[in-house]
Amino acid sequence: AKDRGKNNYQFYTDKLHGLSSRKMELENGLRKALEQNQLMLHYQPQVNLETWKIIGVEALVRWVHPEKGIISPAEFIPMAEETGLIVPLGKWVLKKASAQNKVWQEKGYSPIPMSVNISVRQLQEDRFIDSVKQVLFDTQLAPKYLDFEITESVMQNSEKTALILDQLKELGITLAIDDFGTGYSSLSLLKHFPIDKIKIDKSFVDDIIHHSNQGAMVKTIIDMGHNLQFDVIAEGVEEQEQVEFLLKNGCVVGQGYHFSRPLSVEAMEELLIKNNEG
Ligand code: C2E
Ligand code: CA
Ligand code: CA
Ligand code: CA
Q1: How many CA atoms lie within 13 A of 94 on its CB side?
Q2: For 141-185, how does the pLDDT look when each residue is reduced to its tens digit (9 = 90+)?
Q3: For 12-29, what is the mean pLDDT?
Q4: What pLDDT, on the 0 to 100 scale, is given for residue 2?
Q5: Which ligand is nearest to the CA of 199?
Q6: Degrees to nearest 5, angle at CA 98 with 63 and 171
Q7: Which of 14, 188, 200, 234 has CA 20 to 30 A from 48's CA?
Q8: What is the distance between the alpha carbons of residues 275 and 278, in angstroms, rounded to a whole number?
Q9: Residue 86, class by beta-carbon neighbours within 10 Å (0-12 exposed, 13-18 middle, 19+ buried)?
Q10: 46-51-52-53 Cα dihedral, nearest 10 degrees
């Protein structure tokens, strides 16, 4: 038993070392990616479920690794949050997405808001508001064409967060709760923060087709959202059946593979041009 304990310990520490060196490699790599311009944005349309008209676009970051190819944000955002790299990374995303939206407006496409994911760590950084103001100044994008998506599960119901959100709201930026329904304090967040929009988490939208509860949760969230005067958008819409259910229950905006995957700038522009014509 003693021996086995020792082996287990050995195994455990080896695993730990493996894990931490892989983590360090990833962290150093991401630092380099920021310096060497290996990050890029993809864009996914948010559409009117009835007409397919594009009414917004979400910016989603990608890491184009010189050897590994495209790395998904699910792999590096959590690490970026842990290490604080999310602050410079998030700043880069905000600037890039805002500049892109301004370019689209200058090209004559119908102006639409750009949704940007903001991590809580970023939000609570001391100079966050200043850096947002700086981006607005540098890009000359009107603040109403920016929408910040903040993930509910990590949003803390704190005085400090409320203060920052109030300032963003005052600037004219709209605020959305991302992954709505997955946290434990959804209702209290809606009460204490100046939120404009709730984004129903994909897991609930999935329930519509899997019939786990006949979409009762989605229905409840839509009704509650509208009763409290929030805009409601469904994420992760993949099938026509979901579209029909959402429309029947009063949700008119959605985002998901059914309409489009996240696209490169060029591909997104083609959609925006069609959007202008239609
Ligand atoms: P999210 O904000 O919930 O973004 C939606 C994710 O779902 C995206 O994954 C998108 O590509 C994917 N998606 C959209 N429609 C569908 C669908 O119909 N079916 C399925 N299966 N997936 C769909 P992505 O781009 O890999 O991003 C993952 C997460 O990484 C995001 O989840 C967000 O939390 C985070 N993230 C991405 N970009 C940023 C960023 O710039 N800053 C921060 N802080 N987080 C980001
Ligand atoms: Ca999002
Ligand atoms: Ca989401
Ligand atoms: Ca989600």
Answers
A1: 28
A2: 999 999 999 987 777 778 888 999 999 999 999 999 999 988 777
A3: 74
A4: 47
A5: 3
A6: 130
A7: 188
A8: 5
A9: buried
A10: -60
**Residue 14 CB: number of other CB atoms within 10 A?**
10
Which CA distances in Å does 58 have to 11, 25, 97, 123, 210?
43, 29, 9, 18, 26
Calculate how far, in angstroms, residue 149's C-alpha sits from the geometric centre of ligand 2: 6
Residue identifier of the C-alpha nearest atom 12 of ligand 1: 236
What value of ipTM does the predicted structure carry?
Answer: 0.98
Distances (CA, A) of 155 to 50, 88, 186, 254: 32, 20, 10, 23
Which atom of ligand 1 sits closest to the CA of residue 42?
25
Which ligand 1 atom lies nearest to the CA of residue 149? Answer: 2
Closest protein CA for atom 23 of ligand 1? 236
Check: CB of residue 75 under 8 Å from CB of residue 108: no
pTM of the predicted model as reported, rounded to 2 decimal places: 0.93
* Atom 7 of ligand 1: nearest residue by CA position: 236
- The total of other beta-carbon atoms located within 10 Å of residue 124's CB is 14
CA angle in degrees (0–180, nearest 5) for 81-201-34: 25
Q: What is the DSSP string of 122-183?
A: HHTSTTHHHHHHHHHHHH---GGGEEEEEEGGG----HHHHHHHHHHHHHT-EEEEEEETSS
| Mean pLDDT, the chain, integer | 91
